[in-house]
Amino acid sequence: RGLVSSASRPREDSWLKSLFVRKVDPRKDAHSNLLAKRETSSLYKLQIHNVKPEYLDAYNKLCQEVLPKIHEEKHYPCALVGTWNTWYGEQDQAVHLWRYEGGYPALNEVMNKLRQNKEFTEFRKERGNMLLSRKNQLLLEFSFWNEPIPREGPNIYELRSYQLRPGTMIEWGNYWARAIRFRQDNNEAVGGFFSQIGQLYMVHHLWAYKDLQTREDIRNAAWHKPGWDELVYYTVPLIQEMESRIMIPLKISPLQ
């Protein structure tokens, strides 16, 4: 009797576990291929620099003097999409967004050329003395979002960053492919991205508004559109953490 019960227990345990283990359908393509724009091969880099408070003005001045001279040269397959200071959120922070036309080969080409650029080497050294910390991520853009193109100002920008639960990126993309149509009426949607290297399962939505009151009005208006509340209801459980930065563009930013 004891032998029978001990032999059958593993089978019982296995059967019970099968009731609670979530079955995942095997995928035959990477998330990035399913979610990203296929007609382009652009790679984006998001840089976030925490600047020593007493150096923020000097940091901005240095970036505005040096970055355009380096990255506007034609032999660098790289373009500055936008550069900002955080207004509300973490203070004394600079945010830069770059586009590399041609993906990872373009990124490697730019990095190799910048290592040999004496002016950029000096710039990085001087800039480093002004920083408390820095981090970056490599991103792809969602296929259903707007292309981030230069726009006239004045505008404020909101960078909404979402840390998703691992394994939920496809669900997020499916819901937001429908949700984005609710947020196009006022041309506020600038760009949507998801991380490839750095902190993973990160999503960034970039929005532009005339001012904070306009932001409030536009966001409130979305709740009066049938279907928006349902999409929010289903996407919220996918999120582990979220952060909102309100940002002001620097003079050299193509997004004004």
From TrEMBL:
Q: Which domain of life is it from?
A: Eukaryota
Task: Give a Gene Ontology cellular component term annotated to this protein.
Answer: mitochondrial matrix
Any idea where this protein resides?
A: Mitochondrion matrix
Q: Which GO terms describe its biological process?
A: mitophagy
Q: Which residues form the signal peptide?
A: none
One short Pfam name that applies is NIPSNAP
Q: What is this protein called?
A: NIPS2 protein
**Which organism is the protein's source?**
Halcyon senegalensis
Protein's gene: Nipsnap2
